[in-house]
Amino acid sequence: MSRRGTLAALAACAWLAGPAGAALIDTRLDDPALAARIDGAPLYTLSVDALARAAREKTPGAPRAAALQTAIMNRLLAALARRDFKAEELHPSTRVTFQRDVAADDKLAASLRAQYGKELEAALRALPGASLNGLVRESFEPEPAAWERVFGKGGKLQLEYVLSAEQQAQAKKTILLRYKLPAGQSGDITLYDVYRRQNVQGRVELFNRNQPYLRQQARLKLANLFVLHWATQQFGAKAVDDLRQTLGEQDEVLALLALHGIGDDIEGESALLGRLAKQVGAAEIGAYYRSHKEEFRRIERVKARHIRVADERLGKEVVAAAAKGEDFGALARRHSTADDAKAGGELGWIVHEGKLSWLQQLAFMQPEGQVSRPYRGPVAPDQAASWEIVLVEQRVQGYQAPDSEAVKYTARKAVAREKAAAQMKALRERVLHDAAIEVDGKQLDAPLQLGAST
Which family does the record assign (predicted)? Predict the structure, then answer.
């Protein structure tokens, strides 16, 4: 629908204001299969139902409208993420994880099971034998020669659990089972199909010729095929594909948020944050330091004493004596084996600069006026062990220097995150402003709030 619609059309629309603009929503969509259209493309009811169920598992009573607005925002932001960022930025590759399309199918099947578990159980009971076995026409166990053609000779140390192109071709020829789905659709599950489903741990099992694991994974593949086939029969291929897309968009948006320093991993890094951090100048660092000075409070120096003993038992006795009120200096003169024992274990003032010794670091860790427990000192294998007991008599607080590397590093990261968050907010507003959105008003159980963060 055009934003320049008639006054009558505008009366049927809902304005959803955000902090810096508004999105015009046409609520006259009338198609039970569709929850919304976004720039003319359908968002299926099946997809919103899945998000609503997942949301209610976490928050009972969560409105369905919240799931709809999440689906709409995710679709808009995921499209922007794919357009503006390289795939390797959004999804850094790793050899230990699952293939993205495999993970997407698993996630899709899991969502359908969670939402339609009873219906799927009924469909399983309707199969011959009332189980997945009713789908299997033939099953095969790979012969030793087949294992060797695909995975090489057994017992070899593998640096990588990856098949070459030739090995993959052999795996595709190795059939594990033949199946026939309801309504006549037939197919094969091969060793290659199972191999593609694995992360590195699963591939290790295959390279080790784990036959029970192989059979289990082939059955899991068949179970997913059955679930997706059932859903396609019930809702149509387009609706199932839309649910797959919707679930994938959740991951795309999480990746987009992570790039902007938003999400569960607040200490995580990204290429975007790195670029923004390099652009932070001295003036911004200074401004951040002045407005967040308490973040840079530190102990500048401590005045401390210590007692060094040869075994932990004696150390505990010394600590117990100090707890009863015995003078720490007197205990040091009586028990300490350190050179400063005659001076009552006096360490003097320790200043926080340069590289501190292990004992100095220990002193900076202790609260003022409290005798520490005995700590075993780090010694070489050929040296006798010793235990240190520390008493900090006075601590002097201060602040890190505004031009220190620690301040610069912290300020750059923080300012970069602030800028990234502002960019993310602007992206939300831009995609909403530019989008033409239609929804089925009859499916709403609460007002939409697309202008707010979702």
Answer: Belongs to the PpiC/parvulin rotamase family.
